[in-house]
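Same chain as my last thread, 46 residues:
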Amino acid sequence: MQLGMIGLGRMGGNIVRRLLRAGHDCVVFDLDPAAREALAAEGAQP
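reply #2:
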């Protein structure tokens, strides 16, 4: 399943990490480029 998350702060970032570990594809967005890049390094699509 492909999911999208807007807002990668404490809660959003951790939700995406759990979804990635469960095998889901995640497309992410945040105004902070560092937050996007950190999750992209873990497998999310920015």
